[in-house]
Every structure is written in C-alpha cells, then in structure tokens.
Amino acid sequence: xxxxxxxxxxxxxxxxxxxxxxxxxxxxxxxxxxxxxxxxxxxxxxxxxxxxxxxxxxxxxxxxxxxxxxxxx
Length: 73
Description:
Blueprint: H1 3-11, E1 15-18, E2 25-31, E3 34-36, E4 39-41, E5 44-49, E6 53-57, H2 61-65, E7 69-72
Antiparallel strand pairs: 1-7, 2-5, 3-4, 5-6
C-alpha cells in the first residue's frame, strides 16, 4: 500500500509498518491531538522498536513514496 492509502487507516487506530524494513521496528502508531500540562498538543506518530519501546517517528521522503506499507495485525 502507499502512504496515501494507509494514512486514513493509521489515523483510525490501526498499526502500520513497511514490509521493506525487516529490522527491530514493530509498528508505527498515530497519537491524536491531546493536552499536556493544560496546553494543546498536536497529533504525532510514534514507532515501537524492540528493546526501546516507543519513540517519535517522522516519515522520510522514501517512506512517503514507498509502496510497501502494510497493516500490522
């Protein structure tokens, strides 16, 4: 799937990953807008990595143009 195809599903709570990664990455997840210390916080992506837990994720141009995105069950 393309990033354009998978983005609505990501925003709907599904977990995604690129088939081409094949490393320690488990999935990318969308975190909706919220509040932190009473201030608005914009939505963002996190990635779950084996042994590290969650970290912020910003897709690269290669990620955005890739066609190997898939849903993680």
